[in-house]
Write a structure and sequence with these properties.
The protein is α/β, with parallel strands linked by helices. It has two domains: 7-54 and 320-423, Aspartate Aminotransferase, domain 1; 59-318, Type I PLP-dependent aspartate aminotransferase-like (Major domain) (Aspartate Aminotransferase, domain 2, 3-Layer(aba) Sandwich), CATH 3.40.640.10. The chain is 37% helix and 16% strand. The protein is built from 13 helices and 15 strands. Helix 12 (369-381) packs across helix 13 (406-423).
């Protein structure tokens, strides 16, 4: 028998930890530890708890479903809740996105969308964006370029992945139009020098870079990708794992660009904390997916996750959460821009909805992970939980639960302002 030890030592050290909080309860935007201390959770479990911790409607759906059917493997039976979720997503999405495949995580969904794209097109290559994050499996690591740590000492990784610049105008010190024009030219060079159009199965993009720094993709660039894909028979995949389900003020961020993807990837906020992901595509594309060439034990069969997803969508609709996101987004961004005028260490404030970034720079304009870390640490010490991101780890991201109210945003801004003052 093992001797007594700090039970945390039993956990693998591969996990990084923002805090050492022993979380035992959550409600709304708050997490509570064993002593009952309250923490404002502006991480949302990395964009997962969009309806807040333990939303009563989601909890009730989980409890009710757990007494009826917990699991029904899709190769053996077809759970009714899985069909209901497909029907509800079909109502949300524009035509022709009307066929669905479910799995457990964003990485799994991304793997699935690439396999589907390869089978449909008969092509082998995929183009990703600089600064991307698509997962931690071997294929999705190869598709991830936001930080070397995500692929550190795991190479060689699967081939056929090519990288093109994302139009991040602040990073380049350009106007948005200059960055878009540059990204368009560089994509053309990828086609001419690395992966010809007729061997490219898909281009995949996050409509707001996640781990890459919370950088929104400009509408003109997304529309250019749609045009290029249509011209060359390439599938456009939009990865909304983090930006979906109300996070940016619409159910899906791509709705704001007048662009419809060929394949949509979703996860995180779909289940309000339950593990679930999925892809949506068209009947024409899905028909080319040969039966048996992809699957999974739990995808579509974890009925409790399906019930949680159904309740999540209903809650977002019934409680007018999208309108709250838009109002709180305006409040948060305006508040941060006022702080930026006082604290020029904040080089940029950007984002969509409640997916907002504050990027920290030194006096010479170079990235400052040191300042970001100081501010972040001070916020955590004052019970405001937030995360860093970006290739230089110099971005603090704001991702509160979408049920956050006006007073809570103001409280978070005050804590953040005090942290800025301490960091100078």
């Amino acid at each position: 028998m093992n001797t007594l030890m700090d039970t945390k030592e039993l956990l693998s050290p591969v996990w990084t930890h923002l805090t050492q909080i022993n979380a035992v309860r959550g409600k709304g935007i708050y997490i509570y530890d064993e002593a009952g201390e309250e923490y404002m959770d502006f991480t949302s479990g990395i964009g997962v708890t969009n309806t807040g911790h333990c939303h009563p409607k989601v909890v009730q759906a989980i409890q009710d479903q757990s007494q009826e059917l917990i699991f029904g493997q899709m190769n053996c039976v077809i759970p009714s809740k899985t069909v209901e979720l497909a029907e509800k997503l079909n109502e949300l999405l524009p035509n022709p996105l009307n066929r669905f495949f479910f799995s457990n995580s964003g990485s799994e969904a991304t793997e699935a969308c690439v396999k589907l794209a390869k089978q449909y097109t008969g092509r082998q290559n995929v183009i990703v964006m600089q600064g991307s994050f698509h997962g931690r499996t071997h294929l999705t690591m190869a598709m991830t370029t936001s930080k070397t740590v995500y692929r550190y000492k795991y190479q060689p990784l699967p081939s056929g992945i090519f990288v093109t610049p994302f139009p991040n105008h602040f990073q380049y010190g350009w106007t948005e139009d200059q960055a878009i024009d540059f990204a368009i030219k560089q994509l053309d060079l990828v086609f001419r020098g690395q992966s010809a159009p007729d061997e490219t199965a898909a281009i995949i993009i996050e409509p707001v870079l996640g781990e890459g720094g919370y950088v929104p993709a400009p509408k003109r660039y997304l529309q250019h990708l749609r045009k290029v894909c249509d011209e060359h028979g390439i599938l456009l995949i939009i990865d909304e794992v983090q930006s979906g389900f109300g996070r940016t003020g619409t159910f899906f961020c791509f709705e704001q660009s007048d662009v419809v993807p060929d394949i949509l990837v979703m996860a995180k906020g779909l289940g309000s904390g339950m593990p679930i992901s999925g892809i949506a595509s068209t009947e024409k594309i899905m028909k080319k997916w040969v039966p048996g060439t992809h699957g999974g034990t739990y995808g579509g069969g974890s009925v409790i996750s399906m019930a949680a997803a159904l309740a999540t969508i209903d809650t977002i609709k019934e409680e007018n959460i999208l309108e709250n996101v838009r109002q709180r987004s305006h409040q948060l961004i305006e508040g941060l821009k006022k702080l930026q005028q006082q604290y020029p260490m904040i080089g940029d404030v950007r984002g969509r909805g409640l997916m907002v970034a504050t990027e920290f720079i030194n006096e010479d304009g170079t990235p400052s992970p040191e300042l970001a870390k100081k501010v972040l640490t001070e916020c955590v010490n004052n019970k405001l939980l937030m995360l860093a991101c970006g290739s230089y780890a110099n971005v603090i991201r704001w991702i509160p639960p979408l049920v956050v109210n006006e007073a809570q945003i103001e409280q978070a801004l005050r804590i953040f302002e005090n942290a800025l003052a301490e960091a100078i």
